[in-house]
């Protein structure tokens, strides 16, 4: 399973990436060992993710999300429940 995800940085900015292990990647970001962009913007919190069967699909979606405006990204975030917020999970 691969994931496209968005995190909110401590300065309010949004970072989009892809990974095969979402929990490990979030730990890396918060340990300042993730992407260069997030190193100085920790802590980060997960605000959105989608899962895919292949790396290629996740990378394609990452590109699509990165092309969105901030307003469009915020609207996308509003369409998904975050982990732990949906009682059915």
Provide a descriptive summary of the structure in words:
- This protein has four helices and three strands.
- It has helices at residues 22-30, 36-39, 55-66, 70-78, and strands spanning 2-8, 14-19, 45-52.
- With 89 residues, it is α+β, with helices and mostly antiparallel strands.
- Strand 1 and strand 2 (14-19) form a beta hairpin.
- It has a three-stranded antiparallel β-sheet with strand order 2-1-3, with helices on both faces.
- Residues 82-89 have low confidence and may be disordered.
- It is globular.
- The longest helix has 12 residues, at 55-66.
Features:
alpha+beta; 38% helix; globular; 4 helices; 3-stranded antiparallel β-sheet; 89 residues
């Amino acid at each position: 399973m691969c994931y496209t995800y968005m995190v909110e940085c401590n300065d309010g900015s949004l970072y989009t990436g892809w990974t095969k292990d979402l929990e490990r990647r979030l730990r890396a970001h918060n340990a300042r060992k993730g992407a260069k962009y997030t190193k100085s913007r920790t802590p980060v919190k997960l605000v959105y993710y989608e899962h895919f069967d292949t790396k290629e699909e996740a990378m394609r979606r990452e590109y699509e999300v990165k092309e969105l405006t901030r307003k469009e990204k915020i609207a996308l975030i509003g369409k998904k429940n975050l982990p732990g917020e949906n009682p059915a999970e």
